[in-house]
What does this fold into?
Amino acid sequence: MKMTVIGCGYLGATHAACMAELGHDVLGVDVDPEKAARLQAGEVPFFEPGLSDVLRRNLAAGRLRFTTDPREAADFATVHFLGVGTPQLRRGYGVDLSHVESAVDALAPLVRGEHLVIGKSTVPVGTAAALAQRIAVLTAPGSHVELVWSPEFLREGFAVEDTLEPDRLVLGTDPDRDDSGPARVVAEIYREILESGTPFVRTDWATAELVKVSANAFLATKISFINAISEICENVGADVSTLADAIGYDGRIGRRFLNAGLGFGGGCLPKDIRGFMARADEVGAGRALRFLREVDAINTRRRAALVDLVSDAAGGDVLGTNIAILGAAFKPESDDVRDSPALNVAGQLALRGASVSVFDPKAMANSRRLYPTLDYADSAAAACEDADVVVVATEWAEFVHMLPEELSGVVRAKVIVDGRRCLDAAAWRAAGWRLVALGGPMRVTAPQIPADGAEPIETAAPQVARPRS
Ligand code: UDX
It folds into this structure.
């Protein structure tokens, strides 16, 4: 089937390449000539595992092409995916819909005949209904554009997998019109995915829009829940990681998204819960989402808590100390530094007078752009040179599997702060390091009592276990 994908950022570029991978003829459309040219040359403008292979394979097969011209899009296909960005407004918690609006403004007047626009961007509830009216005004007499909403749930780092093997497909249609035609087209586009048994949830516009933000609100709540519990654990010397394992065995709870630590960041969860709260206020249901303010506050507090923990580890004050920050991306397998907890902490430590050296396996260029005043190193070992404290802020495999011996001869003091509770605490301590973890003590988990019958290794670091005033 022929289709266009309008907006070739993270979501759109992935979607365009993956639709071509399913065998469709795809035209990617973006207003940014540089982005379109790079994609056309087979270059993914961001780091996403596996995506460049899919992109190049489909460019070579002639199933995928990129343009900046909306007229070409209107002529190329009658099906158009909409995957432009919906960032947070510069002022307040609301969502900036200007890209969505300008995309339909550019396309609608140019289409002739019957077209289908499939919205994928994350939008506040009510957006599809408003856009449909906007499109109707702009469409030429005798032509019609049907609008449906099919939100995208992909995770950065797993974007290809999540697009080609999603947990579910959701399709929201105009509640006042017969949706059998658009539903047939969407089912045909995703035939291969649906045939493999993927659930297909058909509903109205508003429900589809809400599914997406509700899912992200739930994930954010789950993370902040465990981080709130970690604040209790810090005060009483309990191990939140073992606690998460134990409650996670309950099938109703589940272990995923219960990793305590520095909390969530990135271009989606923080923005989406804020946009959701703003929209709830607008529709007169603000009270329903008041708890999300607390979710947001707990999350933000983790950053300050890590800064305090690093200061404690440095002897009470970071002024004049050397701090190595390992990790800058908001999560591993990504070069995205939008609302990155790691860089936020690095910035706060620098403001307190520390010399901060940052290393990330993939996010160096983006970090330099966002925080040009921090110092950056070319490797983990280089960042740790003469460090008084080493901080793991993003749990890249490279850091998780790092051997203490690799850094022992490099640092000034063998002190490491695990902001993601991802290190093998016993191994670091056995190598003579003082390890403290954000969220309270980390005991040796598997097995808790070593097989030789010796006592469990003492892991509770005094400064994280002591009650806070
Ligand atoms: C998220 C949603 O998962 C995805 O479905 C949606 O489409 C976009 O937003 P993404 O932003 O790529 O995806 O990242 P995700 O893997 O969800 O992680 C979000 C943040 O939560 C990261 O900063 C991560 O470090 C943090 N996190 C995640 C935790 O702090 N603890 C956890 O247990 C899990």
